[in-house]
Structure formats: C-alpha cells, structure tokens
Amino acid sequence: MEKNILVVLVICCILGLASAQLKVGFYNSTCPRAELIIRGIVQQRFARDRSITAALLRMHFHDCFVRGCDASILIDSTPSKSSEKDAGPNLTVRGYDLIDAAKKALEAACPSTVSCADIITIATRDAVALSGGPPYAVPTGRRDGLISNSDDVNLPGPSLSVSQAFQFFRAKGMTLNEMVTLLGAHTVGVSHCSFFEDRLSNFQGSGKPDPTMDRALAARLLKICGAASNTDPTVFLDQGTSFVVDNQFYNQTVFRRGILQIDQELALDRSTAPLVKSFAANKVAFQQSFVNAMIKMSKIQVLVGKAGEIRKNCRVVNPRK
C-alpha cells in the first residue's frame, strides 16, 4: 500500500512540474496558425467520418496511459522491434492518417516546431467540440518521445471490475471521479462483439446471459454478434446518440444497457454509482468534469523543455546526428 501511495505521489509531482511548463498558446509566436491548421484537418475528416472523434479519443487515451502523452503510439514498428502500435490493445486504434496530414501541413508552415504529441491533444479536443462536446483550451508544449515498445502496453480491459480498472487510473495520478468521467468517452465509441459476447449467453461460464444486462438488449446484440461467424461485428456503446459527446452513456448504464462489463459496473458499484447517476441527471456537470479530466490526462508524464524531440515525421524518430 505504501509503495502504491509513493508511486502516485511521484506521478503527481511529475504532473505538477510538467503543467508548469505547458501553457495555452504555446505556439503563438513560433507557429501562430498551428491550432487553426490542425482544426482545419479535423473538420475536413469529420465532415465525411463522424466516427473520427471516437478514434482520436481512443488514440489519445492509449498514448497517455503507456509512456505518457508523448506520441509514442504513432511510431511504426521496424523489422527488429515491435512498437506500441502493434501491441494487441492497439491493433484497432485508427486515425493515424489524420495525424500524418496535420503534421505534413504543420511542417510546411513551421518546420520542426509543433510536436506530434500536441497534434494528438489538439485534434482530439477539436473532434470533441465538433461532436457536440464542450469546447476547451488545452495547454501545449509537449515534446515527442524517443521510445515505443509493444511490451510496455498494459491497458485496462473491458471486463475488469471497477476496483481493477481504477488501479490503472490511480497509477497515472487520476481519481475515481476522473476515471468515471473518462470512460464517458464511450458515448461515441464502438466495440467489437468479441469484447462482450460472453455477457450475452455464457456469462462467466454460467451458460446464461449476464443478469446485469437488459434482456432485450442482450437478445438484440446476440443476433448481431451471432449473425456472422467469420467476422467480428461492432456495435455502438451508446445506442441513442452514437456520434454525440453527451451524458447519455450514463443514462443507459443506469438502465442496465451498458455494453461492456466495465461500463455497466460503473452504475452498479457502490463507489461509482452516485457519480454515474449525477452525470446521467446533469449534462453540464458531466461536461465540466470531462473538460477537467481530459486536460489532466493530457498532462500525464509529458516531455517538456529539452526532453524528447519534435519529430518531423510522427511515425519515426528523427535521425540521430
């Protein structure tokens, strides 16, 4: 227990130091149009693919929860080394081409100035706003990491209990409230059937559906997931407002319509149920909490100052001089 507390304290200190060096408008003098350029790229993509918001939220989370928000998830594997991108949990992460497009435009406007880590953070923020979520300012000044190793990827899975999932968040200096808030990003997400189909007919080897899932929902999902034997279909985690960043995800879990086990557990566990009910009843409270949690997450173990580098190509570290 003492060791866990010490780890959290160390991470919180790192977060505090990094926060002091990040600032809103970091590129105002070195690349004044940086955020406008990124926003334009995101708007173009969103116009033809509204699911990009969920993709960027997932990419941002998967990046920050491994080595910190250092864009290490963007680095390609080589014949001799497998990067984070090719770790199991990241095989379905997408949106890399959007980051590439933003980086190309930024390199043309301001060479070697804007980090890939900041591109992910800003692009995610802009996609959230386009999806009806709250607009917010993000501090920038992150630098890009030099290391990406598939073995480092250890992320919370969809079948964890609340206490098990919280261990991952607490290790990154996040609170229980912030975990519940960040999981609310599932309001625009999808899941492959393979991540929850055990809940539909053979929950924990019982040969029966998960009793905590609405029966009508379980029956409908069973038809979708069992229809194709050679594919792994996807379903929306929020079956109502699937492309809108709002609080409806929480309303659905209250009525036992959570798709992933961890999502439903949030509404059932005594430690998180009050938070879920509060967010379900108050959209503004969720939005405020979401903004604060996203900004805090974007500061996890960031590289600043002279640490790391500014990659010219987000997929590879710069050639060593």
TrEMBL record:
InterPro entries: Haem_peroxidase, Haem_peroxidase_sf, Peroxidase_pln, Peroxidases_AS, Peroxidases_heam-ligand_BS, Secretory_peroxidase. Its cofactor is Ca(2+); heme b. The record marks 58 as: Transition state stabilizer. Ca(2+) 1 binds at residues 63, 66, 68, 70, 72, 84. It holds the Pfam family peroxidase. Heme b binds at residue 186. Substrate binds at residue 156. It catalyses: 2 a phenolic donor + H2O2 = 2 a phenolic radical donor + 2 H2O. Binds 2 calcium ions per subunit. One of its GO terms (cellular component) is extracellular region. GO terms for molecular function: heme binding; lactoperoxidase activity; metal ion binding. Gene3D superfamilies: 1.10.520.10, Peroxidase, domain 2. Ca(2+) 2 binds at residues 187, 238, 241, 246. It is an enzyme of class 1 (oxidoreductase). The active site is at residue 62. GO terms for biological process: hydrogen peroxide catabolic process; response to oxidative stress. Keywords: Calcium, Disulfide bond, Glycoprotein, Heme, Hydrogen peroxide, Iron, Metal-binding, Oxidoreductase, Peroxidase, Secreted, Signal. It comes from the Eukaryota. Disulfide bonds join 31-110, 64-69, 116-314, 193-225. Belongs to the peroxidase family. Classical plant (class III) peroxidase subfamily. Belongs to the peroxidase family. Ascorbate peroxidase subfamily. Removal of H(2)O(2), oxidation of toxic reductants, biosynthesis and degradation of lignin, suberization, auxin catabolism, response to environmental stresses such as wounding, pathogen attack and oxidative stress. These functions might be dependent on each isozyme/isoform in each plant tissue. This is Peroxidase.
